[in-house]
Amino acid sequence: MAQDIPQKETEYPDGSVRLRNPHIQLMDQDILYHLALGSESHDLVSMFGDVKFVCLGGTPKRMEQFAFSIMDEIGHKLPAGTTLLDISRYSYRYSMYKVGPVLAISHGMGIPSVGILLHEVIKLMYHARVRDPIFFRIGTCGGIGIEGGTVVISEDAVDGLLRPTLELPVLGKLLQRPAKLDKKLARELKSLASAEDPYDTVTGRTMCTYDFYEGQGRLDGAFCDYTEADKMHYMTQIHKAGVVNIEMESLSFAALTHHAGIKAAVVCVTLMDRLKNDQVLAPKEVLDEWQSRPQILVSRYIKRYLSMKGRLSLDGPGGSMCVKSPRRFKLVQQESETYD
Questions:
Q1: So what family is this one in (predicted)?
Q2: Is 139 annotated for ligand binding?
Q3: Which of 212-249 are b and which e, b meaning 16 or more Cβ less than 10 Å from the residue's Cβ?
């Protein structure tokens, strides 16, 4: 059965992240393989202790662009002669950029990829003693009854059977975790949509699938054992159930952040209306502008928060390495380069 998590189990009294894994404290070193970081090889408190916002998106390029964009928005200045550093470049899997209190990280595609990343990012928050972090997923999706270019703030995340639960086989048993997003955070984001934006910003239920083609009812995959009428009936039914978009990460993102007691939101832009077509037909320059729209909304939230805290115009390195042990650093680098 899915159960809610008491707050005292997910954070310490000062708001820092508490891991729900007693084994970590007994380890000589916790190697975050897919981020090319380690709890004893790197000074994670010095590197990440000031983080407040963790922004995840699909591709390394998109998150690099977001890192440069948020740098301008919050007035973060790098020392002369330096540039942003991909902190996880030795992993060859994910990319991570740090801009003051903001982390921008690529999560790849699908529930397994974002799940692996979240395990390690949540552990990173713990090792760095980060207090009350806020997580965002910034991405793309297919709309249901809404036009391409529309920004969608997820109220709930459900699977292909409309269940708000992530199911995961663990030790031969089916584990269920509720996929819950922060309602207040979603409302705050919606309030930041401007009447001057040349596009709509809506809220609604997000369906997360395990597959891009058959799992989303597409007609253009290598296999298709249903008719167009079958597809349209299904799309109409989920639309009536409040589903406004479909993507492939929100269920895991919502379930793992909720299980960790971390405030989180999902903001995506639609690339097409799935009631009209399956393929992305908009030109590249249009898609590039559309994909900036969720970033703009999240940037508004971050900028407003920092303005209220008096933390704009921050100076500092763009994700510099703080190595505690050169020997362990080399070990972590080697492990991350070879670990599957």
A1: Belongs to the PNP/UDP phosphorylase family.
A2: yes
A3: eebbbbbeeeeeeeeeeeebeeebeebbeeebbbbbbb
Task: Say if residues 127 and 255 touch (Cβ distance below 8 Å).
Answer: no
Query: Does 140 belong to an annotated binding site?
Result: yes
Residuewise pLDDT in 10s, the chain (340 residues): 445 666 667 778 888 999 999 999 999 999 999 999 999 999 999 999 999 999 999 999 999 999 999 999 999 988 888 889 999 999 999 999 999 999 999 999 999 999 999 999 999 999 999 999 999 999 999 999 999 999 999 999 999 999 999 999 999 999 999 999 999 999 999 999 999 999 999 999 999 999 999 999 999 999 999 999 999 999 999 999 999 999 999 999 999 999 999 999 999 999 999 999 999 999 999 999 999 999 999 999 999 999 988 766 555 555 555 666 666 666 666 666 665 5
Alpha helices in 128-174 (DSSP H): none
Q: How many CA atoms does the CB half-sphere of 90 hold within 13 Å?
A: 17
Closest CA to 300 of 172, 218, 139, 191: 191
Kind of pairing between the strands at 263-273 and 151-158 = antiparallel
Distances (CA, A) of 14 to 41, 80, 125: 25, 35, 14
Residue 24 counted as an annotated binding residue: no
206 carries a ligand binding annotation: no
Flag whether 163 is marked binding.
no
